[in-house]
UniProtKB/TrEMBL annotation:
Keywords: Membrane, Transmembrane, Transmembrane helix. This is Protein NRT1/ PTR FAMILY 5.10-like isoform X2. The gene is LOC107780079. It comes from Nicotiana tabacum. Belongs to the major facilitator superfamily. Phosphate:H(+) symporter (TC 2.A.1.9) family. Belongs to the major facilitator superfamily. Proton-dependent oligopeptide transporter (POT/PTR) (TC 2.A.17) family. It is a multi-pass membrane protein. It comes from the Eukaryota.
Amino acid sequence: MSFQIPLTSTAVRSSDQIPVDGDPLLSSYGLGLLTLSAVFPFFSSSNCQTTDNADACSPPRLQVVLFFFSLYLVAVAQGGHKPCVQAFGADQFDPLDPIECKARSSFFNWWYFGMCGGNIVTISVLNYIQDNFNWGLGFGIPCVVMCLALVIFWFGTLTYRFSSRCDKISPFVRIGMVFNKAVRNWLATSVVTSIEETRVQCHQDSQENRFLNKALLAPDDHSAEDGQISKINDVEAAKGLLRLVPIWASCLIYAIVFAQAFTLFTKQAVTMDRSITPSFRIPSAALQSFINVSIVIFIPIYEQILVPIARTITGTPSGITKLQRVGTGIFLSVLTMAIAALVEKKRLEIAREYGSADVPNATVPMTIWWLVPQYLLIGISDAFTMVGLQEFFYDQVPREFRSIGLSLYLSIFGVGSFLSSFLIFVVEKTTGGKGEDGWISDNLNKGHLDYFYWLLCGVSALGFMTYLYFTRRYVYAHCGKVI
């Protein structure tokens, strides 16, 4: 799992260029405040110690405000930390070096392996500590670990390397100027050909989204030196971002399917037999750990076995292309929903057979282990799609936009979660009503969740075909050039 990164002439090794990693620091503050809200005795309400009615006991307002402020602080920190840490790590590899190019592809695999391994520890260990000891210790341990990680990051500043930047203008400003100038020149009644437009005539990267080439034209009352035209590199960067939009949109269906593992899959598990021993029952949400377990098991197999085999066949350093990897994960998500629909159909049959359909809180005599295959399969599809999207959105954006590219990848799953909630709302309204239970009912034994899963299976298959259409038309960009 270790990578040796030699310094090259394209890299700069200087502590003056090491950015301060403020997001882990912000996370440490947030986790520290969470711990503070849980451990200090003066935050405890006196009413809680003098009454036996748990409903009448409420925490002081100061504690509630501190708790939610801490949660939002951690969320903001994670929003900045997750895309930047991947881009920062991948930036340590030289894309022009064939050996380092292979190592960079492996980096995304092992980064996700480590993240999912941490999730397993969180679900299995910290949840146990929080439930059986106290929340202060449960929040305090992550706070200490985050502080330790920040110290390790700071100590590593002497070994990090960065590519030097030449342009001091923000990439957001430059790309925004491209769109602004393209629109203004489109509406202009008279323009003159600039030197940049003359150069772009034979520029091979300019065949897509050619309307942005108008940003290279100069209005007739301005010269090329007064900032009224854009540079070719900025125009090509804007085109590159636009090329990602169809891929981004076609992956939203996968995000909707992935959201079910943390919502409806868990709701299914609540109704099933979760007994391991006469005195111990598996928490329904604990099945989510099988997603991380399958990823932790599969990624080493993929990296050490499947990639070398595929590399000898395709000649691609990563075995298969990034879009092929994402497509494989989307295809597996279609199979996941088909399996989930069949399992749910079986669960409903058993519920009706044992007369549990009209009993909302009845436990269906069907072991919870029936759900494990769909959790494992969604985990394997996650290992394909997540890592593929990370590497794709990192590699296909301009250098200054790499953290933004990874933010685009994360936004797929944020938007997908909202779309999942909206789809569930629509299905509830259209399939229920007039006192009748719809497909998704509060009492799952009277609903038809299997129909909803089949709907998702069909939509996913349609999304997969749409994804294939756009990927066949997509032209990869490499090192600033389209290939």
